[in-house]
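Long-time lurker. I teach an intro course on protein structure, and each term I like to show students one example going from raw sequence to a predicted 3D structure in token notation. This year I'd like something fresh instead of my usual example. Would anyone be willing to generate the tokens for the chain below so I can use it in lecture? Attribution to the forum is fine with me.
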Amino acid sequence: MLSLRAFANAQDMALPEKIHFCELVAEIRIDSVRLQRNPHLPMDELVCTCAILQSFKPPGLTNSVTVTFNYLDKRLTYEGKTFLVFAFQAEPGYRPYGGQAGLIEKGHAYNDFVPPKTRGDPYSYNKIEYPDFIQRIKLVTEANKQSGANGWQPSSSETNSTSAAAASRRSP
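-- Reply from a regular --
Happy to contribute to a lecture. Here you go:
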């Protein structure tokens, strides 16, 4: 059985920046899907009606959201599955960051982007298991609420092994 996993790439960003940059960060369950043709590209898209299970950076006071993405691998199934989603607003609803890379299926690990310490060094990733990933998102978003940062936490707090919780204790 194939499964959807999120693998970051060279254009990825560290978790605090991704939370800041995306308009929707939530744990969702895909309740229904329908196939539609992308009007701008010669490919199919899935339009998913989703229940919001946990909101970390919600689109507003709602318990459902529509997520649309390019449907590249027809062997994958989505209905009834739970995902963490990082997404941007786009009609009709939201589109995941980096395409399907913005969907992290429950039970799978996430590869968090770690920027190079010095210019020219290679980028790297830290593998984070799903339950730990949810906790990390909660720490970052809570720290941001306390600091009034509206979804923003400096990357240095994550890249120098200082936790988001410690960063929030240092915040004014």
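Some talking points for your students: Confidence is low (pLDDT under 50) at residues 1-10, 151-172. The beta strands are 24-37, 44-57, 64-70, 82-90, 93-96, 103-105, 110-114, 124-128.
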